[in-house]
Specification:
It is a single chain. It is built from ten helices and no strands. It is mainly alpha-helical and about 240 residues long.
Length: about 240
């Protein structure tokens, strides 16, 4: 079977599952709302970073991106639906590529729109405090934020294919990002800069210190994502559905 009909079939699955559309809506709503709240925060702290403040809503918002990537894949394993899918598309690599495409494209598109809306919402509250941001920094922040959210959604998709369970993925990733990453970051110093979430979030900062810059940080996150996707594909190839 050609890739085009497989892509259409996978896209139709995303459009017809309300939970997936709801996850993307939650990504937009949560990120924009929390960024707007951050825009009225105290700006007198010495470490104040207007770009990171404006895009800080991505911290809670990324949970929705992770949920989106996990559910897109885990829905195949409910009721042994994966058996029917692979009976229709025996080429597992082609099916997996189509599945990842319908994760990546919506996550990137919604991520870019969300980052732009969050930036505008936060800047309205920050006022003059955001006046030092250059156009280049804001473009880098918005584009980088969209790419970061896409990578985290794909990371979750790869882990879900590996675990064959969306619950296992969410139970692993969400506590890691919300708790473990911060604890390790405080204790491990520069080593924590190479964690998948912390590395990618470097692009959200106006100024940054440490071993990674904005794009090298995203590259590290991309490597984590590639490893998860390869592991998920290996599990898909090595185990009968």
């Amino acid at each position: 079977m050609d890739l085009a009909p497989v892509l259409r079939a996978e896209a139709l699955k995303v459009l017809t599952l309300r939970s997936l559309c709801g996850a993307l809506l939650a990504l937009f709503a949560a990120t924009t709302a929390f960024s707007a709240l951050a825009g009225v925060a105290d700006t007198s702290a010495p470490e104040f970073d207007p770009l990171f403040t404006a895009l800080s809503g991505v911290m809670p918002g990324q949970i929705a991106a992770i949920a989106f990537g996990a559910v897109v894949v885990s829905s195949e394993y409910q009721g042994n639906g994966i058996r029917l899918t692979l009976a229709a598309v025996p080429q597992r690599g082609r099916w997996f590529a189509a599945k990842l495409a319908v994760v990546a494209v919506p996550a990137l598109g919604v991520g870019l729109v969300t980052a732009l809306a969050a930036l505008f919402a936060a800047r309205a509250g920050l006022g003059a405090a955001a006046g030092g941001l250059t156009a280049g920094e804001q473009i880098r922040g918005v584009v980088g934020c969209g790419i970061y959210l896409m990578l985290m959604a794909l990371f979750a998709a790869g882990l879900t294919a590996l675990f064959r369970s969306g619950v296992a993925t969410l139970s692993t990733l969400v506590p890691f990002i919300l708790v473990v990453s911060f604890v390790i970051g405080d204790a491990a110093g520069t080593v924590a800069d190479f964690l998948p979430d912390r590395a990618g979030q470097t692009v959200l900062h106006q100024t940054y210190e440490g071993a990674l810059g904005p794009w090298t940080g995203l590259a590290v996150t991309a490597l984590w994502t590639a490893a998860a996707l390869l592991a998920g594909f290996w599990r898909l190839r090595s185990r009968d559905a």
